[in-house]
Amino acid sequence: MSPRKKVTVLGAGMAGLAAAYELEQLGHQVEVIEASERLGGRVYTHRFGAGPDAPLVELGAMRIPANHRHTLDYIEKLGLSHKLREFKTLFSDDGAYHRTRTGFVRVREAAEVLVADYQELMGDDLKDETVLFGAWITAIGDAIAPGSFMAELRPDFAALLDAVDRIDITPFLVGEARDQIDLHAFFAAHPEVRNSGTGRINHFIGDILDETSAGLRRLEGGMDQIVTALAEQINGPIRTSHEVRGIAVHDDHVAVTVSNGQTQVLHCDQVLSTIPFSVLRRLELSGFSDDKLAVLGEVTHWPATKIGFLCRDAFWERDGINGGASYGGGHIRQTYYPAVEGDPARGAALLASYTIGADAAVLDDLPEEERHALVLDEVAGMHPELLEPGMFVEAVSLPWGKYPWSAGAGVLRWNKDEAACLEERDRAARPERGRLFFAGEPCATVTGWIDGAIESAQRAVRFIEESSR
Fold first, then answer.
1. Is residue 459 part of a domain?
2. Which among 161, 246, 324, 342 could disulfide-bond with 88, CB atoms 3.0 to 4.6 Å apart, if both were Cys?
3. Euclidean distance between CA atoms 26 and 34, whole angstroms
4. Residue 437: CB atoms within 10 Å
5. Is the entire prediction scored with pTM above 0.90?
6. pLDDT for residue 73
């Protein structure tokens, strides 16, 4: 074991808290500094009222894929495994809606319209089953990604379908009418197809599979329970409302300028920064290598915006929807129907809109009241019940692109091939002078998920351990 060290962790999101926990497990002394008044970073559960029976909506992380072992291991360590529940996602409930050029259709009735739309776009050169494949993967992509991004990837999708057209996909047809595709089974049997053409959409397909997986889980009672439980395991001080203004790396220490009403300079032996690069690059920095400064500017943090409604009751259940999500198109994109928890008399939460990228930026730029009114109007086009007297109670939103402590929601690498993704990760995670270390989204292999935050924290802890050997 390396000698006992004193490490200052910047940021109390999942990466910072996981790193602090892991460092203390190895015998190191830790203090955590957090700019905001709360812990958890982009794990953010909003409750409509006080008490354990209040309806809740996840304004940050809301699901855990079954293969995200880092996250599930932490949940087990923290004694929360008994609260794991199924998370119903896009296309998991065939009563949910999908927007097409002819209007809203139920997922179970969408295939014919989707195929007609896709055939008009791509022509008649592909087999019928390939067109069906293309129609469904495009429908999922449209629901997940901004429209402008999907347009950029059109040549890559064409190359993907050329590869699919050479494969017999009839074994992967599912549904009563065999008019849907089991994409998970297909890509498990033919993983090479993901690298068709330029290979730029490999990570995008990975997210498609994660976001539509039948193995997704959630924490009953709110995802912020993992934050609370983890913070309780950390012995060192966690100081909130301490904003980092500058970092200077020296050969024998790191100077961190912090403000909590008054400015002070902390002289730290070693520092682990989990500050998002979108925020870090705005600070006063010195002693950083040219390559670190370059990658700080190159990493792209995409905005995301979530808007939750408190409704009088779960009206969607009377419409035959029992969870999952609809694709509303327009400004709202995805609408999720969370499980009703707590006292039904206190209402039910609806995740009215979840958008990312350019779609989120449009909503971010609106005043809050106008943003909420726009989303209410659009969701009511799909669910007119919202306009019944007393059905809509209140709204809450979090535009992560404008949130000062993150300036974005996630680092998405959909437009990069595997080699470029790993290179960016390694450059982002590389320590500075054996004194300043990094964790968080840019340093993760899997971005946009809690698992990546924990993975990056564990890698940073290994770097800290190795630095004195």
1. yes
2. 324
3. 22
4. 26
5. yes
6. 98
Which domain-ending residue is among 177, 211, 245? 211
Q: Which helix H or strand E contains 299, and what residues bound it?
A: none
Alpha carbon 462 to chain centroid distance?
A: 25
Phi-psi region at 193: left, alpha or beta (left = phi > 0; alpha = psi -120 to 50): alpha
Q: Under 8 Å CB-to-CB from 202, ≥6 apart: which residues?
A: 194, 195, 417, 418
- In whole angstroms, what is the distance from residue 306 CA to residue 59 CA? 6
Question: Do 162 and 64 belong together in one domain?
Answer: no
Same domain, 335 and 453: no
In a domain, 1, yes or no: no
Within 90-220, residue ranges assigned H as helices are 111-122, 128-144, 147-152, 154-164, 183-189, 202-211
Instruction: Enter the DSSP assignment of 57.
Output: E
pLDDT score of 373? 97
Same domain, 82 and 141: no
Same-domain pairing of 102 and 70? no
For residue 50, how many other CB atoms are within 10 A of its CB? 7
Number of compact structural domains in the chain: 3
pLDDT at 374: 97
According to DSSP, residue 36 is labeled S
Under-70 pLDDT residues of the chain: 1-2, 120-124, 197, 469
Indicate if 263 and 382 belong to the same structural domain: no
Enclosing H/E stretch for 350: strand 348-356
* Same domain assignment for residues 49 and 157: no
Structure tokens at 212: 């539509």
Domain interval for residue 271: 6-41+226-301+407-466
**From the centroid of its chain, how far is CA 26?**
29
pLDDT of residue 100: 87
Bridge pairing between strands 6-10 and 270-273 = parallel
Separation CA 56–CA 339 (nearest Å): 10
